[in-house]
Structures are given as structure tokens and as C-alpha cells.
Amino acid sequence: GESVGLHLPTLSVQEGDNSIINCAYSNSASDYFIWYKQESGKGPQFIIDIRSNMDKRQGQRVTVLLNKTVKHLSLQIAATQPGDSAVYFCAENNNQGGKLIFGQGTELSVKP
Amino acid sequence: NAGVTQTPKFQVLKTGQSMTLQCAQDMNHEYMSWYRQDPGMGLRLIHYSVGAGITDQGEVPNGYNVSRSTTEDFPLRLLSAAPSQTSVYFCASMRGLSTDTQYFGPGTRLTVL
Predict the structure, then answer these.
(1) Out of A21, A50, B17, B79, which residue is the most buried by the measure of CB atoms under 10 Å away?
(2) Considering only CB atoms, which chain B residues are within 8 Å of A8?
(3) Residue among A41, A51, A99 minimizing CB distance to B99
(4) In this structure, are residues B19 and B13 in contact, taking their beta carbons and an 8 Å threshold?
(5) CB atoms within 10 A of CB B10
(6) What does the pLDDT read at residue B80?
(7) What number of other Cβ atoms are within 10 A of residue B11's Cβ?
């Protein structure tokens, strides 16, 4: 069946280092991918998205890479800060009425 | 804009009780949805609506009902609460149907005893 999963459930990095969070997806028909950040006790917050006709997109301190050949998505956070500590989810929109399929999530912990 | 709002923030029910989780958005979004999030897991889609008067089932619809009488509101009803429905519930809205971003509410933490 369809699934979007994350390789690592937890990631611990030193403040100032770069973070890379990975995600695998199985539905090659998906055409839109989103990364969300979820802080404790809050709803998911949009970070960055990418369409399937792109392989890279940059935002402020974040970059999303899409490799359709191996169905892999990654989120890179530059100069990670304590405020980046959260659970990060990837999600895919496979064009079925707007449904989002979420991965399990990766908890990012930033050490000062 | 207030965005997506949800009430209540917390709720404790006894098995068999019914209740309605409220969700509203003021962005004039056509698409709205309900997810549940269980510990250590991602969000799973319960029900969704592509516009007023239209609803459909998601991945885990059993035990829940929805209605969409207006564009703004999308309440989720638990007919007879069960401990397995203990979870955090998130409502989301989106402008379009495909390549668009879903905006989430703050969530309702529900405990069923």
C-alpha cells in the first residue's frame, strides 16, 4: 500500500550544526510533498514544500531535496538552533482529493 | 485571520458518551479534514470535505461522523466514545485540492476512560 516513512525516529545535533532529516515514500504518483514541524502541544506547522517537477527548493535556513528515482525526500536545516527542536513530518499529496499521507515523524533534539 | 480554530483543547469522556469536536476556519478554504495523532505516530486521516455539503471517509473513519453545512465549520462527532479513541485530534483546511498546503489547528486532546 501507500506509505511515507522516515528513516530515523530521533536525531540529536549540536547547536550550529546542519541537520538532515530523511523520508521515503512509495507512491510514485504523488506530485506534491510537504515538510511540517510540530512542537510539543501544538499542531503541525508548514515549513516548506516541493512539487514533483522540482528536485530542490530552498527557504530560509531550510532546503528540501527530492529524488524521484529512489523516492526519497530530505529536509536540511542549516545552522540548527534550539528553537528547531521539534518533531518533523514529511507528507505527500497524491492528488486523491487533497488527502495527505504522513510519515511517522523524526524528533530533532538540538544540544546547546 | 484567526486561521483554523478548534474547541475544546482538552476533553475527558467516559466510554459510551458522545461529543462533538468543533473546527472552524476563516480563510474561505474549500477543503477541510480531521486527523488523529497517536503517540509516536504520524497523523491519520479520519474524514475530509472538499466543500460545503460534501464529506468523505479517510483512513480511519469508524466511530466518527462529520457534516459540512457551511464552508467555515467542520465538526467531528464521536457517537459512542471508546478508549481506542483516546488521541489528539487535529483539524486542517486547504484552499485547493492538489498542490496546496494544509493549515492545522492547535488540536484537541481527548481521553476516553
Answers:
(1) A21
(2) none
(3) A51
(4) yes
(5) 10
(6) 97
(7) 17
- pLDDT means per 10 residues, chain A with 112 residues, are 55 96 88 91 91 94 95 96 95 74 90 90
Backbone angles phi, psi at A17, to 5 degrees: -75, 165
Q: Do B106 and A43 touch (CB under 8 A)?
A: yes
Backbone φ and ψ of A84, nearest 5°: -85, -10
Query: What pLDDT is stored for residue B33 in this prediction?
Result: 94
- Return the closest-CA partner of residue A35 out of A1, A67, A77: A77
CB contact under 8 Å between B103 and A100, yes or no, is: no
**With a cut of 50, which residues of chain B have pLDDT below it?**
none
Question: Distance (Å) from the C-alpha of residue A12 to the closest C-alpha of chain B?
Answer: 17
Question: Distance between CA B66 and CA B54 in Å, rounded?
Answer: 10
Residue pair B33/B47 in contact (Cβ under 8 Å)? The answer is yes
